[in-house]
User: Fold this.
Amino acid sequence: MAETKEKSLSDEKPKPRVRPIVRLGIFLISHSFHVSVVCCTAGVLALFLLPVLAKNTYISENALMPGSASPMLSNQHVSDGNRLVKDLTNPNSKSSETGIESHKIIAQYMLDLGAEVSFHKFHPQMNQFHPLHFFSSPDSGKIQENYSCSSYGINTVGIIRAPRGDGKEAIVLVTPYNALKSGFGEALSLGIAYSVFSLLTQVTWLAKDIIWLVADSQYGEYAAVAAWLREYQTPKFSSLSAPNAEMCPDVNNLFELKGHSISGSKFSNSFRRAGTMAAALVLKVRDQNEQFEDTISIYAEASNGQMPNLDLINVVNYLAVHRQGLRVNVEKLWSLLNSSWLKSLGEIFESLAKVAKSLYPKWKFGIPATEYVEGTATLASSLYYQALGVPTGPHGAFRDYQVDAITLEISPKFSLDKVWRNDILLRGGRLIEGVIRSVNNLLEKFHQSFFLYLLTSPSKFVSVGVYMIAFALLIAPLPMVAASLYVDANSSSKRSKGDSSTPSAITDTDEHSIAIRSWRWLNSAKLVFIVHLWGAIVSLLPYFISQIPDCSPTTSFMIWVLLSILSLLTLNSVLASPLACAKATQEKEWALVKSVTISSVFIGLGLMSVINFATAEIGALLMVPMCLLAQPLKLDVRAGTLRSFCRMICNLVLGHIAFPPAAFFLLKGMLDGFGNANVGDFWMWVESLWAWNSATYLFIGMVQLPCWVLCISILFHTC
Amino acid sequence: MSSYAGSMYHGSPLLLSLLGPLTVKRIEGQPNHLLYSLVSVIADVVSAMLIRATGQNLRLAYLRSLESLDLVKQIDVSEFLCSGDIAALIYLCNPFTIVACVGLSTSPIENMAVILCLYGACSRLIPLAAFGWVIATHLSLYPAILIIPVIFLLGCGPDSPPRKLFLQRHQQKEVLNQSKLPPGFSWRPIIHFAFWAFLWSVYVLVLCGISLKQFGGLWEMFKSTYGFILTVEDLSPNIGVLWYFFAEVFEFFRNFFLIVFHVNILFMILPLAIRLRHRPCYLAFVYVAICSMLKSYPSVGDSALYLGLLGWFVNELADMQFSLFLFCGYVGVSLLSPVMHNLWIWRGTGNANFYFTTAMVYACLQIVLVVEGVSAMLNHDRKLRILITGKPQDAKS
Assistant:
């Protein structure tokens, strides 16, 4: 039908036929306003639908076979673990100031099991400014001259060589432990790890080496693990730092004592390695617990929103729920749990699903409202931590070396009786044993399941294919609006020229404007480029500001703001004040500027969605409306209609909200209350971002801030 | 040891003996890649100067032809941009050029040879043109097809509106002033060019033969330079599309598809040569762009070359469509492609398809650039015809 119609149409008019795809493009561009409203609404709606669309997790890798073997951890091992806990909590062991005694105890226990033991000394690294670090592999660490003997940590490492393995692969078990002020929880986590370790020295099925790392967490858990991993993966061949640490009497003391007490054993002074790491588990036990059952929390977010393979979480979840009867938790945004609007939204979705089910019984997509609220809270926290780009635990260090790792935090219902302690040791130990046994079965690296996902509950996830739809819908209007503005600006200039001149002179004026017609946007592109250049400068400024000694966050922030404004003014004046000269030549300049701005925002958001999806999503929620709505205030005032008035209000509100510090304070105020907001907080937050190599920092500096400046310049454009 | 032992080097032996020592030698206290990068920078600057000179040549030729068509009044010549300066600036400021320099690739030198050839042909320095052509072909094989634009350049002179227009113009005025007509095709410079090209290639081959005497001679060189290019042996990812395709293709179809892909370039030569024969420099640009799209191991240096050459035609291409789209596409792809590579190779969360997507988008962008560029150029010719005949004709071509 349609074809014949088209044919008859084309018969009538012998004009060159426009191809359907071009026609579709023209249609979209000419209706860009409606299309963008529909797309943006759909994008936001799709984001809220994600908890409904979440799928149940499943174990994708067949080789894992979790829970197929019955656990071998017996009461014997548990009592071994108990012994270690007792020894560590014994007040005698805390006599030494550096806590070396407890490290010796742990090492002694490991040695008794027949494991290879070594100590790893490290110096905590200072916060460094390397914003592009997320892009490269971690280096072997700068050797700093001014190490003092007082600030070093000692990791105790025990390695079991697998009887069936070839020593090319390993599984890592990490227990953070602060010897100086260890709580009972840390000792208990060591106990669990020890009971598993003692079992693993006896089993015959082990095909991968087991590394047990007792990370000295007095300088932070992450720093210790990161230092050990750096040494493990990128060995230093310079002998500068090693003697430095060895010169310290305490450390030497440690080695000598060891050497004397256990001669001829498997203790070694040098750094010991096993094979490549297949997976890593970080085990923690929380001291206080307000819950009434034993729960286990999983932390998975590594730097820049990278997640471990979903299979690892699946295995832990499956074993914890179905074998050990533990409740599994993932992080939630608690403030969202009691929000009424979310609840009503969930109820709407639920009732919609009911209607749909009554219409066609096979449509079963609804979830109960309470589950929806919980899913949304989990999803929000998943998005938040991924967007922040700061790892949620020591497991983040592993992801930088492409090792899948998660942190398990056991929070037992607290009581001091011995039966309870044995119970938690047994169940925790069996869980760890089961996970290690599953990973031990792996033939290859984790690759079957997802790397890009968001969790809505421990057993539900949203995969990349689903959440990208929401994002794509949100940013789809950008290229369309950019194209329509561009076409508009070009055709309007042509029209005005055609009107002003007599028909005979049309070709003449056409020729006259030959040099600028199709390449007019270059002027706007120059402006956009300059603003982005400024963004890069602003992102680099903290490096110099952080060098200033004794600077409070507030003053640093003030210096930063001042320097930024100064550099913007300088750039603007040096590069021939693009705004002024552009204004002189073209009347619809702002449309072109907006078009190029939107294009650059589109590129930036697309880029960020690949690097760190969550940042891009949150950034898009802020920036897309601002970019799309931006229009010179003067025009709106002149128009004086209700629509333009609404747009003006929206523009002003968005102009305030989308400014990065303003957005930060707003979010902070929403989460913690506005009472204790301080200007320096933003500086501290930014500092934490660049110290953790977060790409979010670059995104804010080089995409969001320039976009905001450009939008503001469009708003105040004099046309 | 033969320079082709293993799979480290697949370039010209002459280039290796010239530049090889530079990569090893180091100045006190400086990093050891300094000397070679200095050579790349010098090569790029020389290329930019040659581009500028050629651009000025082309602009003069264009103005002259407008004058002889009596169109100077209708087209405001003072609005004309200095295409040579613009082209040179584009070439030097292009991030691709800088990246190729930083990456210590040989493409600055290959580009210089190509530009040398075009410059020689434009300013009718036949030995120089022949030298550039021979060296460019020797270094990377693909510039061999530039012989067609070079022949046109030497035969009928640089870019001008179609010859038909001149005839029409003079028929209108009914004075057949032969001196105002552009010269017809002359064979003499082409024979000169052939002679010089033969001489230079014999010279280059003898030099190569001498340097490879102990290691299998010239055959070894052809096998591991041209053979390596034509058989697409190295499938490590690059910004082209062939590596992915040949990693996927079944072994017994491999030869067939090798032929298909290489003939692809050859297929486009003839139609383009017929359609754009009056604009040989533009033809050269189109050929370079097509080669950089379809060659087996493309690099951003190739894009730098054709984007620089594009600057020659700013006046003619003022009406090009999709210019903003193309610009944004190039920016986007050049930012996205390293990120995708990082995601695949380093983080391990992506896979080859992620990176290949950007390679495909890049190829599409190049196609759009070539198609739009050629159609803009044809439109420009059409507009000149309308200006001459005074009435719009139905566009048939």
In short: Residues 352-389 of chain B form the longest helix (38 residues).
